[in-house]
Design goal:
Structural class: alpha+beta
Order of helices and strands: EEH
Number of helices: 1
Helix content: 10-25%
Bound molecules: zinc ion
Shape: elongated
CATH architecture: Roll
CATH class: Alpha Beta
Low-confidence stretches: none
């Protein structure tokens, strides 16, 4: 299963440390005891994963719902 996030902003995101544009990469996210791949903005230089605010705040509720529906 995979989770679709709105990453339309991600093209403009830059790593604050490296000053390089972030790339979208599948990252395994662990949540509620489940692990699933999510497309996340990642810095190609330092590997830092940027968690969009929407994901941190609201979207996880949707993910939780999706998992429960399964
Ligand atoms: Zn970086």
């Amino acid at each position: 299963m995979s989770v679709k996030l709105d990453l339309s902003d991600a093209a403009n995101w830059v790593c604050a440390d490296c000053q390089v544009a972030l790339i979208i990469k599948k990252v395994d996210v662990s949540y509620l005891g489940s692990s699933f791949p999510v497309d996340m903005p990642v810095c190609p230089q330092c590997g830092l994963v940027f968690v969009p605010e929407a994901l941190a705040l609201g979207k996880m509720a949707e993910v939780e719902k999706t998992l429960e529906d399964k």
